[in-house]
Amino acid sequence: MKKILVVGGVAGGATTVARLRRLDEEAQIILFERDPYVSFANCGLPYYIGGSITERSKLLLQTPESFKARFNLDVRVNSKVVAIDTKKQEVSVEESDGKHYTESYTHLVLSPGAKPFVPPIKGIDLPRILSLRNVPDTDKIKEMVDLQSTKDVVVIGGGFIGVEMAENLVEIGLNTHLVEAAPHILAPFDSEIATMIEGELSKHGVNLMLGKKAIEFSEEGNQVVIHFETGETLKADLIVLAIGVQPDTQFIANSGINLDERGRILVDEHLQTNVPNVYALGDAIMVDHRVLGGKAHIPLAGPANRQGRIVANNLHFDKKESFTSVLGTSILKVFDLAAAATGSNERSLQAVGRAYQPIYIHPNSHATYYPGATALTIKMLYDPNTYEVLGAQAIGQNSVDKFIDSVAMAMHFKGTVYDLAEVELTYAPPYSSAKSPLNMAGFVARNIIEGLMPHARFEEALNIDPSKQILLDVRDDAEVAERKLEQSIHIAVNELRHGRENELDKSKEILVYCAVGVRGYIATRYLLSKGFKARNIMGGMKLSGGYGIQ
Amino acid sequence: MKKILVVGGVAGGATTVARLRRLDEEAQIILFERDPYVSFANCGLPYYIGGSITERSKLLLQTPESFKARFNLDVRVNSKVVAIDTKKQEVSVEESDGKHYTESYTHLVLSPGAKPFVPPIKGIDLPRILSLRNVPDTDKIKEMVDLQSTKDVVVIGGGFIGVEMAENLVEIGLNTHLVEAAPHILAPFDSEIATMIEGELSKHGVNLMLGKKAIEFSEEGNQVVIHFETGETLKADLIVLAIGVQPDTQFIANSGINLDERGRILVDEHLQTNVPNVYALGDAIMVDHRVLGGKAHIPLAGPANRQGRIVANNLHFDKKESFTSVLGTSILKVFDLAAAATGSNERSLQAVGRAYQPIYIHPNSHATYYPGATALTIKMLYDPNTYEVLGAQAIGQNSVDKFIDSVAMAMHFKGTVYDLAEVELTYAPPYSSAKSPLNMAGFVARNIIEGLMPHARFEEALNIDPSKQILLDVRDDAEVAERKLEQSIHIAVNELRHGRENELDKSKEILVYCAVGVRGYIATRYLLSKGFKARNIMGGMKLSGGYGIQ
């Protein structure tokens, strides 16, 4: 009879044990969880702190009792696995009261997850500096933020958890500061999109401090003082650390199970470790990256859940089902906006030296003649040689998840921009446009590939050489009156073909821009047909915010 | 120099001329439109009648003047092409004032669209019987419905336009009746899903008359009387005919351009007719069906728009770009719900004798612990031999478009249920679940394929043979008290494994059901492990409405 031990009872571990029991009624299955709760809603913790989720009990998706009743599982909370003896096939368990015991296994599944990274900075262990991983952490933070005396809260780290925390702290009326050491928050997004997310945070009252590195914490009365590398300081009643996560794998260190240099568990495509009958999954493992190749650490709930099913299948059937690779598809709510991404961004493609071409579009969420349409900004990257889609980022009020999901599905098949141009998606006026945002992204990429749209990046519009270039604004008078780029001249697109092209110097290159890129494209086509050298500024003025132009 | 004539100026024709001009500044391009308006929002017409779209001007996306100003196009409205001479390469045009002239061409593009089908029934031409194709039709219907005296309106035909009209008539407070000759409305949906749409219509006050065929219309005072085949009658102040559409191609009949027996234009994959330099697109052509093979008539805006681009490219570059095939992806709003479909449904697969397996799931639009999650009902069909996804239908308040779009994208690549199980979509609590509805659909299909879930259709639960079968309800007491199936016995899933399995007769087959199918699956797995013969009723009690069980 199988005796299966599973270490870690959140997303991956909980999925694994439920699936294992459905496959095998007879196996002995024991789930160890170091914390007091299993299968809790870890992605919901910030929203409980912020009050969107009002009942704490909703965070607890399963309990040891419910697991016992439905699946006859032996779930042991407050039980920390401290060591593994892979030769004897047993683990050492430490209970919260200090008692130790060992438990043998025929099969072992490691799903220990990741814990918040806590940098070795002076003062980091002050009691008002907390981090968020589990339900007890949540209770502690909630207790602090609910105090009358808590007014200023600083979140350190602008990743997903940091941004979600900042939003939720604003929701409950606190003065919220978000500190990020890098120039922009949210590494999965390139700076043009990250800037828009930052704008939404600022608009809702988050005090953003970008490019600020904390190097020390000290106490002053009932407050903590953050000391930045720049010499600046900031006082807070509470600090939430959200700098990142690291695998919680110290107990594996001397077991013979291979970890990488950062403590992450190495598995093959079947999620098996180097030790027979030992599997691993979730936030503690390395996986293959679908676009970049090589290994990646993607601590997300979706992959962990799917991995749980694969581990259970492979363990039970002894079959070799594969976890293919990850795209890193992710989304977050930022007040009234959603921002989502899949695949690689420009920065990560540059880092590995992979060729790419970006495009930008600003479609509407649905037909503009039907009420309620809202604008999206989309950046997509494709391979200029194979035309394969390499990644996409989107931000807007609506349809962001829909767009990125469809792109992720296309990328699952290593689809090209031609596939996006061809795909037949749902359309009715309340939901989309007859040419969907995916079609539009495909069309724009095809126009570039087929040489129909010579293009320029927005940066080029800010750095023209007036001796050789003309910056041409083809928008309408009212738009130009509101805001325009320096050194630009203005001829509305419809006026160009009524003789005004003659105002342009044919010996110079014309960089054309409009609001989103569509009229710029039409004007560019016209100018090219008349023998001008012209390029269209992709993305148009809607990208200007990312370059400090408001 | 090219001289390109385009017949028909709505979705397909308007896209074609705009693209053609962007490709070729020099060509002479003339667009003929029989009606007074081009490039109008045909999908928006019902919503203008219903008042969601308040400004009539919003329906007019382009005008002859705007096309002239931006694209230097010669747009001729009220100009009906009445004949084509493909030998002389010229068309005959009839203007609304009765004047005739001919216009020669080097290239001809046919985008005449489809017109409402008007059956040859006695009284069909009574003035209170209208149909909806264009802006003048819309003006006429709107004028009628705005009359104080208009109280009862009958829509005949439960297709997309008929259902959208019915919803919009209710929105403006009219007594609305929807008549459909078939047993259910909306042919793209199978009866389980169509029933849910019908439920939403009834709930909002639409008087649904299914399986009723009108055979005559007569006048009585200021009303029309509809006479049904059954002998019943119904009086109305206004009748809107929405029985279906037919290609508006009479003018092509003797031109040598091939039409099928129903007047639809035959084109090759490059959208070229049998006559050189003559292209066709939009609601008047036949296309290849991606799932069923063979030809299909799919009068939808999305394909027409994409075809316009292809026609322009092929015409201009003389290249052979293909319009691949259609899935028939569609969506409609029905009051608070959206209903969408892609690919083939069960009925159409049966009609061609193609093997298929359906699955049903009822996932939530996002994590249930985050506020605002709503339920979806999804039916998916796949090939039991190749596992290819053949079609999907979904209904719910939210995320219906997102789900169907991703399935359509998978079907574009001829993806299998394994692809759905593997794909990595966006997840955060406000947007989805860690196991997305697509993943869940893939998981359920895999459980069937891999023999883990012996399954039954809901119909089987209604027709058990008590001498050989037991119908087992594994829901909780409260659910059973509310509503249960006849002949069922009740043992909650969690009680099964605490000895109560012994109450079941092992010589009989157990058909297990719960609310949605999940607990039924768990109970089925348990019973199988204990040596019972058991099958899970797919879709559970949530499908019961489709079988008359409320």
Automatic annotation (TrEMBL), chains A, B:
SMART domains: RHOD. Its cofactor is FAD. GO terms for molecular function: oxidoreductase activity. It comes from the Bacteria. Residues 465-541 form the Rhodanese domain. Pfam families: Pyr_redox_2 (PF07992), Pyr_redox_dim (PF02852), Rhodanese (PF00581). InterPro entries: FAD-bd_OxRdtase, FAD/NAD-bd_sf, FAD/NAD-binding_dom, FAD/NAD-linked_Rdtase_dimer_sf, Pyr_nucl-diS_OxRdtase_dimer, Rhodanese-like_dom, Rhodanese-like_dom_sf. The keyword Metal-binding does not apply. PROSITE patterns: RHODANESE_3 (PS50206). Keywords: FAD, Flavoprotein, Oxidoreductase, Redox-active center. Belongs to the class-III pyridine nucleotide-disulfide oxidoreductase family. This is FAD-dependent oxidoreductase. It comes from Entomospira culicis.
